[in-house]
UniProtKB/TrEMBL annotation:
GO molecular function: 4-hydroxy-tetrahydrodipicolinate reductase
Protein name per the record: 4-hydroxy-tetrahydrodipicolinate reductase
EC number: 1.17.1.8
Enzyme class per UniProt: oxidoreductase
Catalytic activity of the protein: (S)-2,3,4,5-tetrahydrodipicolinate + NAD(+) + H2O = (2S,4S)-4-hydroxy-2,3,4,5-tetrahydrodipicolinate + NADH + H(+); (S)-2,3,4,5-tetrahydrodipicolinate + NADP(+) + H2O = (2S,4S)-4-hydroxy-2,3,4,5-tetrahydrodipicolinate + NADPH + H(+)
Organism: Mesorhizobium marinum
All residue ranges annotated as the Dihydrodipicolinate reductase N-terminal domain in the record: 3-126
Domain Dihydrodipicolinate reductase C-terminal residues, every copy: 131-260
PANTHER family on file: 4-HYDROXY-TETRAHYDRODIPICOLINATE REDUCTASE 1, CHLOROPLASTIC-RELATED (PTHR20836:SF0), DIHYDRODIPICOLINATE REDUCTASE (PTHR20836)
Protein keywords: Amino-acid biosynthesis, Diaminopimelate biosynthesis, Lysine biosynthesis, NAD, NADP, Oxidoreductase
Stored CDD domains: DHDPR_N
Length: 268
């Protein structure tokens, strides 16, 4: 079966890496593309590639008027949830790369997907080394309950924390034991400097830095008396590392019902 894929955010940093990658797969075809500024243009031409016969739509609703199986979203944090729910209600499976959503949003998306008998795979980071970072951090959290997350991104990133840090903190909060840190409510001075708690229960403190020069780096810091462990991922300047994980999710999502969160759930 050929998987017909709609790429929402086709002209963006990740989308423009995904479009030729999808076209190069023997079991996939690009069935639609969404981006406002290139609306009406041939998608290949809009990316400086040979024409591919897919006309860019201004909205996902427009792209959903044509047949497709999977919608991939790499758009913006303020667009992704509505896109995902619209795709689900149109009976499409969804792969979510866009950041900005948390556990409550994903619970809603999961319920909608189950209601429509479609699958959703979402990952804050589709790169293999970021996924390993999450896996190693979750292993460490079983032994070391005191952990905090530092989230480094560019000065212009519109959301905080990043998708990478949010998924990591929410997952860490689910497995780690009781922190020995003084509760933030009992801290004097400027308690906000202790970061924000992300995740269930008392959460995991996340500290988001936004500075020119960073793409995305994420650190889980674990502390025990007289020793520390740092597990860190650094993203580079190309979108290439996200392509293979997103293609894997496109293949897997057609046999999923409801939400699967994290690329780590798809790899052994
Ligand atoms: N999960 C992962 O592994 C990764 C996640 N990300 C996340 O993915 C998201 C996208 O990142 P990136 O590719 O850098 O973003 P870009 O800003 O480079 O691209 C965004 C794309 O979405 C389109 N878009 C934006 N707003 C709308 C809208 N309202 N309607 C339709 N299309 C829209 C843009 O086109 P136009 O403006 O013309 O509409 C563009 O094509 C971010 O949240 C980022 O954090 C990034 C890398 C990896
Ligand atoms: O906005 C970005 O650039 C990135 N965002 C993703 C996130 O929010 O975690 C990750 C990616 O490495 C780059």
């Amino acid at each position: 079966m050929t998987i017909k894929v709609v790429m929402a955010g086709a002209t963006g940093w990740v989308g423009r890496a995904m479009v030729p990658a999808i076209a190069a797969q023997g079991d996939m075809m690009l069935a639609g593309a969404v981006a406002r500024n290139a609306a009406g243009q041939d998608c290949g031409g809009a990316l400086g590639l040979p024409p591919n016969g897919v006309t860019v739509s201004a909205t996902l609703a427009e792209a959903l008027a044509l047949p497709s199986d999977v919608v991939v979203d790499y758009t913006k944090p303020d667009v992704v949830k509505a896109n995902a729910l619209a795709a689900i209600s149109a009976g499409r499976h969804v792969v979510i790369g866009t950041s900005g959503l948390g556990a409550a949003d994903y619970a809603e998306i999961d319920s909608a997907a189950r209601g429509s008998s479609v699958g959703v795979i979402a990952a804050g980071n589709f790169s293999i080394t970021a996924t390993l970072m999450k896996r190693f951090a979750l292993m460490a959290a079983k032994y070391v309950p005191d952990v905090e997350v530092i989230d480094y991104a560019s000065a212009k990133k519109p959301d905080a924390p990043s998708g990478t840090a949010r998924e990591l903190a929410e997952a860490l909060a689910d497995v780690r034991g009781r922190s020995t840190a003084r509760p933030v409510a009992e801290v004097s001075g400027v308690p906000g400097t202790r970061g924000a708690a992300v995740g269930a229960g008392s959460g995991v403190q996340v500290h988001a830095l936004r500075l020119p020069s960073y793409i995305l780096s994420c650190e889980a810091l674990f502390g025990l008396p007289d020793e520390r462990l740092t597990i860190r991922h650094d993203a580079g300047s190309s979108a290439a590392p996200y392509v293979a994980g997103t293609l894997l999710a496109i293949r897997r999502v057609t046999s999923v019902k409801g939400l699967v969160r994290g690329l780590d759930a798809l790899i052994d």
